[in-house]
Amino acid sequence: MMNLTLKIWRQANATTKGKMVTYPIENVSPDMSFLEMMDVLNEQLINKGIDPVAFDHDCREGICGMCSMYINGEAHGPDRFVTTCQLHMRKFKDGETITIEPFRANAFPVVKDLAVDRSAFDRIQHAGGFVSVNTSGNTQDANNIPIDKHDADKAFDAATCIGCGACVASCKNASAMLFVSAKVSQYALLPQGKVEATDRVLNMVKQMDDEGFGNCTNTGACEVECPKGISLENIARMNREYLFATVKG
Amino acid sequence: MSGIIKSSLARKYAMAISGLFLVVFLMQHFIINLTSVFSKDVFNEISHFMGNNPLVQFVLQPVLIFGVIFHFIMGIVLDLKNRSARDQNYAQNNGSANSSWMSRNMIWSGITILSFLVLHFIDFWFPEMNYKYIESLPVDPDRYFDEMVHKFEDIIRVGAYVVSFFFLMLHLLHGFSSSFQSVGLNNKYTKSFKTFTFAFSIVIPIGFIFIALFHHLTA
Amino acid sequence: MASLDSKIPKGPLSNKWTNHKSHINLVSPANKRLIDIIVVGTGLAGASASATLAELGYNVKSFCFQDSPRRAHSIAAQGGINAAKNYQGDGDSTYRLFYDTIKGGDYRSREANVHRLAEVSTNIIDQCVAQGVPFARDYGGLLDNRSFGGVLVSRTFYAKGQTGQQLLLGAYSAMNRQIGRGKIKMYNRHEMMDLVLVDGKARGIIARNLVTGKVERHGAHAVVVASGGYGNVFFLSTNAMGSNVSAGWKIHQKGAHFANPCFTQIHPTCIPVSGDHQSKLTLMSESLRNDGRIWVPKNIDDVKAIRDGKLSPTQLKEEDRDYYLERRYPAFGNLVPRDVASRAAKERCDAGYGVNATGEAVYLDFAAAIIRYGKEQAHVKGLDENDAVLVKKLGQDVVRSKYGNLFQMYEKIVDQNPYETPMMIYPAVHYTMGGVWVDYNLMTSIPGCYAIGEANFSDHGANRLGASALMQGLADGYFVLPYTIGDYLADDIRTGSIATNTPEFDAAEKAVVDKINLFLNSKGEHSVDYYHKKLGKIMWDKCGMSRNAEGLKEAMVDIKALREDFYKNVNVPGTDSEFNEQLAKAGRVADFLELGELFAKDALNRTESCGGHFREESQTPEGEAMRDDENFTFVSAWEYKGEPADAILCKEELKYEEIEVKTRSYK
């Protein structure tokens, strides 16, 4: 069992100013997930009549992409290839002070405490993150177009992005390039997506810029912090796609 | 087409391409400087050619100056813009856990190099312009080597030179390979290519430092 | 007892759907623009329905409580999606998929619905590939398949262990396209609080903005509930933390029948509970049973040594291991259906053979598969098949490519390397076959109110086969509801937009606000989670993997008492005008506290064992589940009458025309 000190960002809503508040917590089991530790804290706060800490979470198995904490200066904390919900307390030491902040970017305004609004990601997808095919079921047989396994695998790897925003949070420029490039790459690699690849990359990048994300300077922080290990190759592919698209379009 | 001018990606390409252009120039500059270690005459000869050939003087030189200014202004504009994408900073940020110091501090290594360039202009370029175009002094194809050696007698100048090239090394360590990523080149050759850019980024600045120290010590 | 009209079309089974589609009413494209539809939930069913309805031209309003439609819990489905494509040429067909699903559901699902599901299954794969879903492929570039529990063919399409994610992102992308076009208006972080009826028809909902707390009115010509299952009534389940029954329960309270609430699937391969702090359970895909062998030690002494850490499972000799599924069910072995596998694990653990500290875990071992694959690879690559180290490495690479993300997840949670030591697994609540009763058109007993996906009850009977949930969600959303809803809406083309300034909306909103105030003013001494955990414990102990009359009666009493205490003593901090997760949770737990009681009542009523519902009083001498077809071949649909204990049972008799009802045997 561990005793810890938590320094947590508290902010009532998007328009008020926030601050760091310190809470001690005792008897933390190393087998707890980070969010289970937060549950325990909140239970204690509720029983003391203090407003519990708001944070986003849902599936708690690392796939929905909803949890989003900046722990000890890193998105989703010190472990690799995990989301906050899959980070376990065994990664921390007894007596440690843990700093917990929301994912910060102007494009991700705070909703409350540690919960942020990532709808900018949705809007980027509205701009072109799809293949324009109606869901009539009258498409051609799924095996009509064989797809090179290597391309299919790469498309899959790009498609595993969970849209958590760790890339934006970790980037010193709050750039969303890894997220956008993963979607662009998934479709650019598949014959079904190639048809409208030009418009897609132009529109998605434009929306990305309009949302107020910063510019990519290739620090590579996003790739390291990405819980799904989305590769920087995707950003290169998007740069390439955009270059060709601009020349063509 | 407006995207190519205004979009974030266009700026990225611009930084990358101007950067690569400057790397080529750096290489060229290094080779010329290196000749000074082996042969005073060769150095003088090339310097004289570079200083008096109209193509170099009136085409390449303006392009270079434009490239330098463009790279700097764009770099500063981008940095300011990027800073404004996150108004509220983290109370604790562990950048070293996921990225190199060089990649996070391009603006500082860049500004150091910029200050060096100012010194360099004061030292070499302004006197040169003055010599050739303002005072229109007589052509002397053998003056370059001695002028250079004279400059390197000052220990403070050599010190500034060494520090600046150290920052250039840091700048190149991220910037050179990064520019390929920016224009979309990242594939199975990238790993070996990175070894090359890494070596280049270390060897060239150290070479410049060596030349400066060589002349300081042998003068 | 009232009876329900399931509106199953006449004619031979295989033509029912085609004929039905050809004869139901349609709404013209011009008139679709005049019709609004509300869809609650954005999982596979909700997202695919929203997208398709919008493509057809309806004005769609979609609601999800998460911060983005992409977060819906369909995203966590791992293993795959079934379709009768027969790409493997192993004898699959629409009929066989239909048959397997009925049999897997222990003959408690509706024949016509299941046949339709099997028919449209192939369209789903075509559709998903067309929209860029990256399914696994072989080196020839064609789609790959794997096999799943309870069937004898390979018909499951997959994308590593993230099939649900890829399918949901596909449906989400189709939604995005329509959101971009303005045909779907998306309401993120909104929760449906109640259904509004006007003249007995569903005409809108009351929703609450979870960020500002504002209570809003939304009118529409039809309301589609696609809010998923209610496994979280057990507190610990593989569901997401936010998964809840509230949308389904609200429409139940307004007149929709709730069917077979006791049919819950306990999934055999989940990561065991580690302690009291546990907030949820994590599934390890059933596909792992393709390659993993399940066992416990044969001797109780070895069990003790393993629990004390004196013996490692890898040290145990082959003859000292009890591969109990292979022993009991030689034909299907480790690939028996989920209900059978879960009960077998419970049986071994109850007998004292559980292998972890709590005694509630069995091994899922990949050592044999690693060697098998390793030898295969060595052979293909022309390397030495007898080099143990090489074979192991090659085999591990194959396993990594198939299940890498699952193994990684296991390692992060349990802190053990499953490539080297067997995984520990134990059954956990996973899926609810029961749900809102719907007719063949997927309409509930409230006109204009539909339920699709896991939220309805229709296709899985008493037990769902692996990789069928994704199939049903997408079938309902892409290919069934968009047709059948037109039949109802054809009468609504002259209605005009639904006004929300009516007494019906006033009353519904007032009830919602009153309930919120009730929670906030209670100022009791226990948190919402305190009650949720207590409810979960009652459910797991008395309505879990095996049930008996005595326990179920106790459960009903206990849940009622807990519910009464909840309303007196719950402590919900904060206000109604801010982002208040506790308040949202209080509403959800309040509904679980009612559902739980109905669940127990339903289980008590069904004195047979079938599928996921095992009544101890009804078993064969060998301890296998014993169905009572004579008395229980029906759907229990419950009508709301206030207290759950007072709910009235309506039976929908199940008739099997194409299929002979047999005892399910996997031996």
Description:
The complex is a heterotrimer of chains A (249), B (219) and C (667). Chain A is of the alpha+beta class. Chain A has two domains: 2-112, Beta-grasp domain (Ubiquitin-like (UB roll)), CATH 3.10.20.30; 119-134 and 141-248, Orthogonal Bundle (Fumarate Reductase Iron-sulfur Protein, Chain B, domain 2), CATH 1.10.1060.10. Chain A has helices at 34-47, 119-126, 149-159, 166-170, 177-189, 191-194, 197-210, 221-225, 233-248; strands at 2-10, 19-28, 69-71, 74-75, 97-102, 110-112, 115-116. In chain A, helix 2 packs antiparallel against helix 7 (197-210), helix 3 packs antiparallel against helix 5 and helix 5 (177-189) packs across helix 9. The termini of chain A are far apart. By secondary structure, chain B is mostly helical. Chain B has a single domain, classed as Fumarate reductase/succinate dehydrogenase, transmembrane subunit (3 helical TM bundles of succinate and fumarate reductases), CATH 1.20.1300. Helices cover 81% and strands 0% of the residues of chain B. Chain B has nine helices and no strands. Chain B has helices at 2-6, 8-38, 40-52, 54-83, 101-104, 106-134, 144-151, 155-182, 190-218. The relative contact order of chain B is 0.12. Chain C has 18 helices and 20 strands. In chain C, 39% of the residues lie in helices and 14% in strands. In chain C, strand 8 (201-209) and strand 9 form a beta hairpin. Among the domains of chain C are: 268-429, no CATH class; 503-632, Fumarate reductase/succinate dehydrogenase flavoprotein-like, C-terminal domain (Methane Monooxygenase Hydroxylase, Chain G, domain 1, Up-down Bundle). By secondary structure, chain C is of the alpha+beta class. In chain C, the strands form five sheets. In chain C, strands 6-2-1-10-18 form a five-stranded parallel β-sheet, sandwiched between helices. A five-stranded antiparallel β-sheet of chain C has the order 12-16-15-13-14. A four-stranded antiparallel β-sheet of chain C has the order 17-11-19-20. Chain C has helices at residues 13-23, 29-32, 44-56, 94-104, 111-130, 163-180, 246-253, 300-307, 324-328, 338-353, 367-380, 388-414, 469-489, 503-522, 528-542, 549-569, 581-605, 629-632, and strands at 36-40, 59-63, 81-82, 145-146, 156-157, 184-187, 190-198, 201-209, 215-219, 222-225, 258-259, 264-270, 293-297, 321-322, 362-365, 423-432, 435-436, 449-451, 634-639, 648-653. The model of chain C has no long low-confidence stretch (mean pLDDT 95). Chains A and C meet through helix 1, helix 2 and helix 3 of A and helix 3, helix 5, helix 6 and helix 12 of C.
